Amino acid sequence: MTVHTLHKALDAGFASLLDLDAPVRTVGTGYSFIEGPIWHPTGHYLLFSDIPADVRRRWEPSGVVEVARPTGHANGMTYDRDLALLICEHVPAVVARYDREGTRTELASHFEGRELNSPNDLAVHSDGSVYFTDPLYGRMPGFGLERPSDLGFQGVYRIPPDGGALQLVVDRDMFTAPNGLCLSPDESVLYVNDTDQANIRAFDVRPDGSLDDQRVFATGIWQADENGVRDDTLGVPDGMKCDEHGNVWVTGPGGVWVYAPDGRRLGEIRIPEKVANLHWGGKDWHTLFFTASTSLYTIETTVGPRREPFMR
User: Fold this and answer.
1) Within 13 A of 44's CA, how many CA atoms are on the CB side?
2) Calpha distance 277→230 (Å, rounded)
3) What is the pLDDT of residues 88-139, one digit of tens each?
4) b/e per residue 97-112 (b: at least 16 CB within 10 A)
5) What is the rounded CA–CA span in Å between residue 92 and residue 96?
6) 8-311 homologous superfamily
7) Contact assessment for residue 302 and residue 286, using Cβ atoms and an 8 Å cutoff
8) Extents of the domains making up the chain
9) Which end of the chain is more exposed for a tag (fewer CB within 10 A), N or C?
């Protein structure tokens, strides 16, 4: 007998992560293109960016309110272990830190004397260092300020915990559009995806924070149209998170694709719109939020996130 489910399981283990018939709920809509969801562990609200509208909004069960305008066409966001808000701002091209009083400090803006492209997404290590990707999206119309790149390559960087010199942690020609990134639960592996290459790379994290043993973790995260041509309107590798068991959840065609730590593709969560990013929240950390083009969606999962420093 064929059993039809809302979501797509490719491996028996997928059903242990969520109910395959769990509904996807719309909790906000009418936006331009939303990104960067991040849950506040004590305030119990979600912040998210609307990049073209240059607005930051807050979702809580009572509704959605605007909390900042302009935002520098902000994209990815997270908190550090002191609950300061870290934001990738496209204009200017910086990683900025806002403490609890709202005081802004620029953590990264240049590399080798040249302006960064447009910091996109970021992940915080328990030692206080910050990894971030730096593609060109914030230099494209609608997502920032159209202008040429000063660097000439698209890299992945580490901000040391002591605030020392910015470190390029990958080869300059490795990525053509580095985008989402996340750390494994034990922080021994950093995953970075490339939207253009439609893949995910994995790196071992050395004790000094540098990266080693680069390998391709997943490929082919794209879908063809009826003519066999890649169709990015269906979804691409963009936002990415690890769950508490080390599974990798990445945006892709149709919604979100989930991979086991050994690279097996477990299944897909189907979302009505093209998903840009995701983050767990809720009082028990089992509500998964999706920023998807014009709408904010949620689904309940039976698994929680990798416990990031700010969650502890």
Assistant:
1) 7
2) 21
3) 999 999 999 999 999 999 999 999 999 999 999 999 999 999 999 999 999 9
4) bbeeeeeeeebbeebe
5) 10
6) TolB, C-terminal domain (2.120.10.30)
7) yes
8) 8-311
9) N
